[in-house]
Design a protein that fits this description.
alpha/beta, 665 residues, single chain, Ac_CoA_lig, binds adenosine-5'-triphosphate, nucleotide-binding, ANL_N_sf, AMP-binding_CS, 8-stranded mixed beta sheet, binds magnesium ion
Length: 665
């Protein structure tokens, strides 16, 4: 049970969680930060909304442009154009610019492979010079395969430096990449290459994951049995497993690179030229091919990286690590495109967090002396479940800042992160954003914002985020509503590839004039925004709207619980009842007494209305491959005992099978 949390009684709840713990920026941190007071944040935020031309014009000038834009913004709802007429290249800003500035020998990427041999993992450091040479060579390889400006190239690769090289090489020649996370199956590849009309796939023989080889090339071969859009497959040798090579279609990366010239100037791209397509996680259904263009995306990811992670290239020790896979938007924006233009080294790790043991991440932090660390709530909950002993083995004193993204973070998970990883010394940035938003929309600024566990706090510059009713009016303090963005921002999606109508229906039809995020939220009396979960998941018990995050966080605040997922189920009297799926921490026994205790605990934390009607213990809950809880599957399961919805992005089918085998409580 958490101290400092008051409970609301019986039935009176639109909003539930009453988190009162507050964490102002640590004094030592604030003094050296880019943005170091709330006044400064508020003034800049106001300016960014009142005069976007001035604000973004100045910020965009921090990047390299071949030709300056003539106008900053053109807005015809739902279509935004940013930096009109401006010409730039994303790869140039990530790589060549640092070389031009005399920093070619500085480390750009620190990479660590998963396997450990003789007690040592393989580590590679790539400088900006290395990246310039390698991206130029691979850009020439792409050209030799007929890839031109405007084409789409699919990348299905492990987390190795060649993935970064391939994506930057696409940007270099002006081709859009479509990266498919290496955990996806053949049918997911087939769907995505067909949707993107991609004639070229870059892959690898395999990738390492928890000591096993993921057969990437084999999956590509299987996918290409089902479609014939792909003409060329380039395969990197990584794991040396046996693969089939089809004559006329398949070639080896190293053979093509051997003969390639390292001279390939960056293509001058229009600010609004497509940089990439990326499919969403698929938490709510069939993934959408989100389109991002060059200028606005680069400016926004560069600036959010600089301010939210408070990056300091002049600090020689600075080493930033985002644990996401590059196959997700978090990896695109905050391993590569936002970080490299800041001239701060970015760490890439190939494998699993528990290989060879549950302390792998902390071992990496200690050995490389990571300063800024960005991960997901699902990982933090796993660390909590695995136990503190794995963390305590390591010296984490190099860490200066922690971040989280992907789902609402349960306040108890936030506290654990703060205490165990941050030694109560590092600010935590809880960043709310989406594939569609391209970059952080709600986030604390680490030197300015007082953090509150579980809240993503305030909008970033240029983000006009609000919590509204269906008619677009703002809800009152602490009332739940819909999360919207009312003004265009530079890195907003430019559409869903090949599906204009779905773009309009999904984001622009729910609330007139505003971008609708699909998430529910509330704003507290201090102006902090709390994302309470997906609107589709909101539970309406006897007319009270409960956010899934709030009920789950109440469960996670019990010392025995590692993770919880709650969903609404039909209930004769209340209309909707609550079913909870609970994963216990290591060493805890799933007894009936504990079940009763947990139900009572929710009643105490939130109020009787939020008490689960069913509670089941589960070894795991279904998640997307990016680690988000898929409540729609649990809802189906709790309601009908069956799962029929789209499961193509489900991480582990066994979880559903195991849950089906369980009795209801
Ligand atoms: P799909 O749109 O296909 O259902 P998805 O929404 O999971 O998949 P992403 O773009 O990867 O795809 O995830 C964005 C969503 O993740 C947000 O809309 C929100 O629900 C959740 N999210 C991300 N970060 C946070 C955060 N810090 N706090 C709360 N929720 C978050
Ligand atoms: Mg989404």
């Amino acid at each position: 049970m958490s101290e400092g949390k008051s409970t609301t009684g019986g039935g009176a709840v639109e909003s539930v969680q009453q988190e009162t713990r507050k964490f102002p920026p640590p004094a030592g941190f604030a003094s050296g930060a880019h943005i170091n007071s709330m006044e400064q944040y508020e003034q800049m935020h106001r300016e960014s909304l009142e005069d976007p031309d001035k604000f973004w014009g100045e910020k965009a000038a921090e990047l390299h442009w071949f030709k300056k834009w003539s106008r900053v913004l053109e807005w015809n709802l739902p279509d935004a154009k940013w930096f009109i007429g401006g010409k730039l290249n994303a790869c140039y800003n990530c790589v060549d610019r640092q070389v031009d500035a005399g920093q070619g020998d500085k480390t750009a990427i620190v990479w660590e492979g998963e396997p450990i041999e003789n007690g040592q993992p393989e580590v590679r450091n790539l400088t900006y010079n290395d990246l310039k040479r390698e991206t130029s060579k691979f850009a020439n390889v792409l050209k030799s395969l007929g890839v031109k400006k405007g084409d789409r190239v699919t990348l299905y690769m492990p987390m190795v430096p060649e993935l970064a090289i391939a994506m930057l090489a696409c940007a270099r020649v002006g081709a859009a990449h479509s990266i498919i996370f290496g955990g996806f199956s053949a049918s997911a590849i087939k769907d995505r290459v067909e949707d993107a009309h991609s004639k070229v796939i870059i892959t690898a023989d395999g990738g390492w994951r928890r000591g096993k080889i993921v057969p990437l090339k084999q999956n590509v071969d299987d996918a290409l049995e089902m479609t014939d859009v792909v003409e060329n497959v380039v395969t990197l040798k990584r794991t040396d497993n046996e693969v089939a090579m089809k004559a006329g279609r398949d070639q080896w990366w190293h053979e093509l690179m051997d003969g390639a010239s390292d001279d390939c100037p960056c293509e001058e791209m229009d600010s609004e030229d497509l940089l990439f397509i990326l499919y969403t996680s698929g938490t709510t259904g069939k993934p959408k091919g989100i389109m991002h263009t060059t200028g606005g995306y680069m400016v926004y990811t560069y600036l959010t990286s600089k301010y939210v992670f408070d990056l300091h290239p002049e600090n020689e020790d600075e080493l930033y690590w985002c644990t996401a896979d590059i196959g997700w938007i978090t990896g695109h924006s905050y391993i590569i495109y936002g970080i490299l233009p800041n001239a701060v080294p970015t760490l890439m790790y190939e494998g699993g967090p528990n290989f060879p043991a549950e302390d792998r991440f902390w071992d990496i932090v200690e050995r490389h002396k990571v300063t800024k660390f960005y991960t997901a709530p699902t990982a933090i909950r796993a660390f909590m479940k695995w136990g503190e002993e794995h963390v305590k083995k390591h010296d984490l004193s190099s860490l200066q800042l922690l971040g989280t993204v992907g789902e609402p973070i349960n306040p108890e998970a936030w506290m654990w992160y703060h205490r165990m990883i941050g030694s109560e010394r590092c600010p935590i940035v809880d960043t709310w954003w989406q594939t569609e938003t391209g970059g952080h929309m709600l986030t604390p600024l680490p030197g300015a914002t007082t953090a509150v566990p579980g809240s993503a706090t305030r909008p970033f510059f240029g983000a006009d985020v609000a919590v509204v009713e269906k008619d677009g009016t703002e809800v009152g303090p602490n009332e739940s509503g819909l999360l919207v963005i009312r003004k265009p921002w530079p890195s907003m999606l430019r559409g869903i590839y090949g599906d204009r109508q779905r773009f309009i229906d999904t984001y622009w039809s729910e609330i007139e004039g505003f971008y609708f995020a699909g998430d529910g939220a509330r704003k507290d009396g201090d102006g902090n925004i709390w994302v309470t979960g997906r609107v589709d998941d909101v539970i309406n018990v006897s007319g009270h709207r409960l956010g899934t995050a709030e009920v789950e966080s109440a469960l996670v605040s019990h010392p025995s619980v590692a993770e919880a997922a709650v969903v609404g189920i039909p209930h004769e009297i209340k209309g909707t009842g609550i079913a909870a799926f609970v994963t216990l921490k290591g060493g805890q026994e799933p007894t009936d007494a504990l079940k009763k205790e947990l139900i009572a605990h929710v009643g105490k934390e939130i109020g009787a209305i939020a008490k689960p009607d069913q509670l089941r213990f589960a070894e795991g809950v279904p998640k997307t491959r990016s680690g988000k809880i898929m409540r729609r599957l649990l809802r189906e399961l709790a309601t009908s005992g069956e799962v029929k919805g789209d499961t193509t992005t489900l991480e582990d089918f066994n979880v559903i099978a195991k849950l089906k085998g369980k009795d209801e409580g």
